[in-house]
Amino acid sequence: MIPSVNPSGSRTIGLLAYLYGPGKHEEHTDPHLVASFDGMSPDPGRNPNATLTDLQQLLDQPVMALAKHARPAKHVWHTSVRADPDDRILSDEEWASIARRIVAATGIDPGDGQPGCRWAAVRHADDHIHIVATLVTEDGHRPDDYRSGARAQAEARLIEKELGLHQVAPGDGTAAKRPTSAERHKAERQGRERTAREELRESVRRAVAGARSDEEFFDRLASAGLLIRKRVAPSGDLLGYKVALPDDLNKDGEPVFYPGARLAPDLSLPRVRERWSADAQSVSSVRREEAIRTGPGSPAAARRGTASAVWQAVLIVEQSGDGVAAAHIAAVGEILDALAKTSAAHTRRELRDAATAFERASRSHVRAVRGHDRALRRAARDLVQGGPALGRGEDGATTAMAIDMLFFLITATARWHARKGHAQQAEAAARAAEHLRAAYRAASAQPLGVLYQRGRRLSRPMLQRQTVLLREALPELAEQILAEPGWYALAATIAEAEAAGHDPAALLSDVAARRELGTADSVSDVLVWRMRRTADLPADASHLPETNTAENRPATRGTTTKPASPARRRTGEETSRQSR
């Protein structure tokens, strides 16, 4: 249940005319009073002898009783109270009780013998009411309505519990502004899936992802097709910006511009500049890295790099100080935006929805200490510069790898927010994780299918050897893994790792121990991607030769793991002989 308080109106009759009218799009049905300050105010909706003027004059009477110079210029207080779309339809009596509780909680009409304001609650739809009040009490004073919006929200949380309605997570004032009803109706009229505000917010977020300067940021906005207005000081310094969609026009045919700060608190120019100003502090190291590169990498290389950066970030979010963790969490939003922008069609929608959901989780009152998030921001930049990825081959497989790692980072983010009491952010991160699950299933189906078939074609002695190896390396997880369909894909990966010169037991133990596995749908899937990333194996195995034995493997490459010991090889050979 969402109360939306607007305490600054000046014309009671104008608001009443809107509430009792048909609405801008004929959406108002059967407007009528459900409650009022005295329980018997005239109802122009149900009483044919009552007029809007009768109700307006009754509500305005305490205001008009004051001397003209003492009357407040803006004396109209208004809030809508809207139920969740999944809630049952409430009766007029239930809405009347809700209205009385809201005006009492906000100080508009506190009750208990205290002087209150005059108010009326109008219902013109199944899912919400409007409460209109005049901000002069019966004894001629201003009501104690300080922070009435926050007080209304707190009372709404209690009402939800008592009536068994959808419970909204309490906010902390860091959420982006919701689209207004006028903006929603305009989008519907224009056939848009989202409002202009929401489209612009996504476009600006994507332009920020991995950007390193004002120039790059504005170039990206222009490339996205947005109209841009910059606010410049007399000195020539850039102070702010506004953006608009070319086809979103007002009644005069002019584009409707939104300042960055009105799209989201962290999209104002000073806040977005914090990201690349922190990068500039390490410009020498960045230049060294850029000198090594010959240009934008491939989409697959960018995704593999993203998986590595995300893998390291999980531990940082779990163990670092609040400011450093908050910076990494904010940078996760950039990763999601960049991944959604550059991924193949079959994963793009879920990744976009994940990025949209996570937007709420990327901000809190914990101020991010920028600069520590450089690795994630560089990964976001590489994703953008790497360009669109294909849905198959190494592009598709590394997309699945990156999404798998991101799921654990976002799960860690949800836990971090929950520990801090950030209910909305924790809920948003959990929603983003569910979208990532769906994106992962789409991205991983083909590459894991290939690995599954390779695993099924391994010789029986090889599979038996690997079963023994798994039980030795991961005794607590082995039986669960062996029961999963993904075991065959993991078996194929173990064979590849061993053929490439790695000690598979040590590698398995290493990747299983580094991060939790309790939230994984399939432990074997997770271990596949962790092993392939750590051992630098190709993510896509469709063009690799079959691996049926670890004998005659090539010399060990420079890796973080060691070749299998002679004792372990003898054990495997003995197991193989016994199985024949």
In short:
The chain is of the alpha+beta class. 54% of the residues lie in helices and 8% in strands. A hairpin with a 4-residue loop joins strand 4 (119-123) and strand 5 (128-134).
Question: What do these coordinates show?
Answer:
- By secondary structure, the protein is an alpha+beta fold.
- Among the domains are: 2-163, BirA Bifunctional Protein, domain 2, CATH 3.30.930; 181-276, no CATH class; 457-580, no CATH class.
- The protein is 54% helix and 8% strand.
- The protein contains 22 helices and 8 strands.
- The chain has helices spanning 12-20, 52-64, 92-105, 148-163, 181-189, 196-208, 214-223, 260-263, 269-280, 283-292, 299-319, 322-342, 345-361, 374-386, 393-420, 423-456, 460-473, 478-482, 487-499, 504-514, 523-534, 566-579; strands at 2-9, 32-36, 76-82, 119-123, 128-134, 227-232, 238-244, 258-259.
- The protein has a 5-stranded antiparallel sheet with strand order 1-3-5-4-2, with helices on both faces.
- A hairpin with a 5-residue loop joins strand 6 (227-232) and strand 7 (238-244).
- Helix 3 packs antiparallel against helix 4 (148-163), helix 11 runs antiparallel to helix 12 and helix 11 runs antiparallel to helix 14 (374-386).
- The chain is elongated and about 95 Å long.
- The relative contact order is 0.07.
Low-confidence stretches: 283-295, 549-580
Which fold does the CATH topology of the domain at 2-163 refer to? BirA Bifunctional Protein, domain 2
Distance between the termini: 67 Å
Shape: elongated
The mean pLDDT is 89
| Main pleated sheet | 5 strands, antiparallel
**Could you tell me the radius of gyration in angstroms?**
30 Å
CATH architecture term of the domain at 2-163: 2-Layer Sandwich
What string, H for helix and E for strand, traces the elements in order? EHEHEHEEHHHHEEEHHHHHHHHHHHHHHH
Number of helices: 22
Work out the helicity level. 40-55%
* Beta-strand percentage range: 5-15%
Classified by CATH, the class of the domain at 2-163 is Alpha Beta
Overall strand count: 8
The main sheet orders its strands as 1-3-5-4-2
What class do helices, strands and sheet pairing give? alpha+beta
